[in-house]
Automatic annotation (TrEMBL):
Signal peptide: none annotated. GO terms for cellular component: cytoplasm. It is found in: Cytoplasm. This is D,D-heptose 1,7-bisphosphate phosphatase. It holds the Pfam family Hydrolase_like. Zn(2+) binds at C92, H94, C107, C109. It is an enzyme of class 3 (hydrolase). The active site is at D11, D13. It comes from Pantoea conspicua. Its main location: cytoplasm. Its EC number is 3.1.3.-.
C-alpha cells in the first residue's frame, strides 16, 4: 500500500481568493496576495493541495453547477500555469433551504460537516494527523476538527475573525502567504 500523504485542505473564498460574496465569475475571482507563491512552497514541502469549498450559491439559484465548473477549470489552469497542481477540488452545492430542489438537503459535505475532507482522505490516501485545514470561518475549523485534521489554521484574509473561530483554531495567521513559514517554525 502506498504511503499516506500530508495535505493542506484549502477553503476557497476568503482563503485563496477575495470573498466578494458567492463569487462565480472569472472577472470577480482575485487571488489574495501571496497565495500562489505560498501554494508553490507548500507543494515543494511535500503537501497535497486539496480545495474544499461550500458553494451554496448553486443551491440558492445564484449560479449553476456548470458556471461553478467553468470558474473552477479556469482557477485550476491558472494555478497549473504557475506550477501549482491541485491534487483535488471538492465542493458542496447543497443547502437545507435551497430554492433549487435538487440541492435542498442536509448533507454531510457542507462545512462544518467533514464530508468533503473525508472523501478526499479516502480518494487521495491522506494522513489526516499530518494535515492542515486552512479557512476563514468557524465552519472551516469545525470541519477540520471533525475530520481529524492535525492543525486548524484560521486566516484573517476573509470574513472577520470571530472569538468562536479563534477558539476553534490552532493558529491564526494573516493569510495563506504566512503558512509555509509558520509550518517550518513548528
Ligand atoms: O469559503 P468557501 O467555503 O470556499 O465558499 C464560501 C462561499 O460559497 C460563500 O459562502 C456563503 O456562506 P453560506 O454558504 O451562505 O453559509 C457566504 O460566506 C459567502 O460570502 C461566500 O462567498
Ligand atoms: Mg471561506
Ligand atoms: Zn453538501
Amino acid at each position: 500500500m502506498a504511503n499516506k500523504v500530508p495535505a493542506i485542505f484549502l477553503d476557497r473564498d476568503g482563503t485563496l481568493n477575495v470573498d466578494h460574496g458567492y463569487v462565480h465569475e472569472i472577472d470577480n475571482f482575485q487571488f489574495i496576495d501571496g497565495t500562489i507563491e505560498a501554494l508553490q512552497q507548500l507543494k515543494q514541502m511535500g503537501f497535497a493541495l486539496v480545495v474544499v469549498t461550500n458553494q451554496s450559491g448553486i443551491a440558492r439559484g445564484m449560479f449553476t453547477e456548470d458556471t461553478f465548473m467553468r470558474l473552477t477549470e479556469w482557477m485550476d489552469w491558472s494555478l497549473a500555469d504557475r506550477d501549482v497542481d491541485l491534487d483535488g477540488i471538492y465542493f458542496c452545492p447543497h443547502h437545507p433551504e435551497a430554492t433549487v430542489e435538487e440541492f435542498r438537503q442536509t448533507c454531510d459535505c457542507r462545512k462544518p460537516q467533514p464530508g468533503m475532507l473525508l472523501t478526499a482522505q479516502q480518494e487521495l490516501h491522506i494522513d489526516m494527523a499530518a494535515s492542515y485545514m486552512v479557512g476563514d470561518k468557524l465552519e472551516d475549523m469545525l470541519a477540520g476538527q471533525a475530520a481529524g485534521v492535525g492543525k486548524k489554521v484560521l486566516v484573517r484574509s476573509g470574513k472577520p475573525v470571530t472569538a468562536e473561530g479563534e477558539a476553534a483554531a490552532d493558529w491564526v495567521i494573516d493569510s495563506l502567504a504566512a503558512l509555509p513559514a509558520r509550518i517550518k517554525q513548528g
